[in-house]
């Protein structure tokens, strides 16, 4: 049984338990990497998409650690994730 895993938080389905692997920033906004890290998106941290906007590339409501944030799709694409095993 093979399940397709999301490569970024932007493509993750709501409710799936994930782990942050890496945070990177687009060339046009290099400050996003430090901003996302400051919010708690750090390698090894638990993260989960709680809700998605109506459009496929809309905003996401995500929980990282004990905090909840709204992220734009482009910001969520900067966060590489893998499924949690717990």
Instruction: Kindly give the count of domains.
Output: 1
Strand content: 25-35%
Q: What class, by secondary structure content?
A: alpha+beta
Terminal-residue CA separation: 18 Å
- Architecture in CATH? Roll
Largest sheet: 5 strands, antiparallel
CATH superfamily: Ferrous iron transport protein A (FeoA)
How big is the Rg?
12 Å
Would you report the number of β strands? Answer: 5
The poorly predicted ranges are none
Number of helices: 2
CATH topology: SH3 type barrels
Using the coordinates above, name the CATH class: Mainly Beta
Report strand order across the widest sheet.
Answer: 4-3-2-1-5
Report mean pLDDT, rounded to a whole number. Answer: 88
The coarse silhouette is globular
Order of helices and strands: EHEEEHE
Helix % is 10-25%
Structure, explained:
- With 86 residues, the protein is α+β, with helices and mostly antiparallel strands.
- The protein has one domain (9-83): Roll (SH3 type barrels).
- The chain has helices spanning 31-39, 73-76, and strands at 18-23, 46-52, 60-64, 67-71, 79-83.
- It has a 5-stranded antiparallel β-sheet.
- Strand 2 (46-52) and strand 3 (60-64) form a beta hairpin.
- The protein is globular, with a radius of gyration of 12 Å.
- The relative contact order is 0.32.
């Amino acid at each position: 049984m093979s399940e397709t895993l999301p490569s970024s938080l932007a493509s993750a389905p709501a409710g799936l338990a994930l782990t942050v692997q890496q945070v990177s920033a687009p060339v046009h906004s290099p400050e996003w990497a430090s901003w996302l890290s400051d919010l708690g998106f750090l390698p090894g941290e638990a993260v989960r998409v709680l809700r998605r906007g109506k459009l496929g590339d809309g905003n996401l409501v995500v929980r990282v650690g004990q905090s909840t944030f709204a992220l734009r799709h482009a910001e969520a694409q900067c966060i590489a994730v893998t499924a949690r095993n717990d």
